[in-house]
Amino acid sequence: MFSIQVPSPLQRFYPDWPNAERYQLYVKRDDLIHPVISGNKWRKLAAPILQFAQHRPSRVASFGGGYSNHIHALAYCCWQLQIPLTVFIRGDYTGNETPMLKDIVTWQAEIVYLNKVDYQRRTETEFINQLSAQYDIDVVIPEGGSQQQCFAGMQSLADEFNRPIDALILPVASGGTLAGLSVAKHSTIDQLHGIAMLKGADYVDKLVADLIDKRKHSDYTIWHDFHHGGYAKVTDELAHFCQRHSAQLNLPLEPVYSGKALHAMQQLVSRGQFATGATLVFLHTGGLQGAR
Ligand SMILES: Cc1ncc(COP(=O)(O)O)c(C=O)c1O
Fold first, then answer.
1. What is the domain range of residue 209?
2. How far is CA 164 from the centre of its chain?
3. Which ligand 1 atom sits closest to the C-alpha of 173?
């Protein structure tokens, strides 16, 4: 249906970080899975999209910000499958559309701007029912595509590791990627280290915990001190880090997810967080369109 390139490559990389020589460092290039449905987007959307292809919904809907990678990937998938899509966007970009919004207009998505107060109600059943009735929506995918249905895609990601990994390091925002890997994790991955991209430890911890049975899957760590001031906040240090590492490592990075998480990995490596000799893998979750 789509030209999806899996398994994604696992590439060795050699950064000039303090202590880097103590570890075997790899990057899992999920950003190369597809030019639009890249990174964790394909992993999260694979199961719902394959289901839509078989049992076509009359209209799909989802929620996201004006730069959302999830909305971008979902709109592309729905357009390819000719399934009507409505997206509820946080804030009003009328007359000031982002490149993401311009793309999804060409992919025939219906855009509804919600003010911040209404957007905060995006997980309330009553609000979702009201929107579903108003816009004739059949299926609602939560913000970021984070729902238990995305776990199958995370299992397929975990299955691609055919050598022991001591730690997998990845960005966390709406929680589905870490939650899914925590549930799917099998014998090859020892530790999962999620790097929170947003401020608010309780909020991020709860997003992940709410998706899983915490009693069975508490074996992950979420780091809360690498968000650079909050979601999509970019310090000069982070911007410089992204530029330098994109060039040095020949690895596309943007500051909202991949660059921020790799910067956190640098900090953890430099301070000797992991046992000497460990194999550490950075999960590149894509999202490069958001940086246009
Ligand atoms: C490119 C990218 N990486 C990582 C994440 C964070 O993943 P999650 O929302 O599943 O925690 C997102 C947001 O969904 C994203 O767009």
1. 10-36+156-291
2. 23
3. 11
- How far is it, in rounded angstroms, from Cα 197 to Cα 290? 14
**285 within ligand 1 shell (Cβ under 6 A):** yes
Calculate how far, in angstroms, residue 174's C-alpha sits from the geometric centre of ligand 1: 7
List the structure tokens of 200.
């608010």
Tokens of 176: 């589905």
Which helix (H) or strand (E) segment holds residue 73: the answer is helix 69-81
CATH number at residue 267: 3.40.50.1100
DSSP character for 141?
E
**C-alpha of residue 156 to centroid of ligand 1, in Å:** 17
**Residues 234-275 pLDDT 10s:** 999 999 999 999 999 999 999 999 999 999 999 999 999 999
Statement to judge: residues 115 and 203 lie in one domain: no
Average pLDDT, the chain: 96
Q: Whose CA is nearest to atom 9 of ligand 1?
A: 174
Q: State if residue 173 touches ligand 1 by the CB under 6 angstroms criterion.
A: yes
Closest ligand 1 atom, CA of 176? 10
pLDDT in tens, 194-231: 999 999 999 999 999 999 976 566 689 999 999 999 99
Any ligand 1 atom below 6 A from CB of 286: yes
pLDDT of residue 214: 66
Residues 66 and 16 placed together within one structural domain of the fold: no
User: Around Cβ 263, how many Cβ atoms within 10 Å?
Assistant: 22
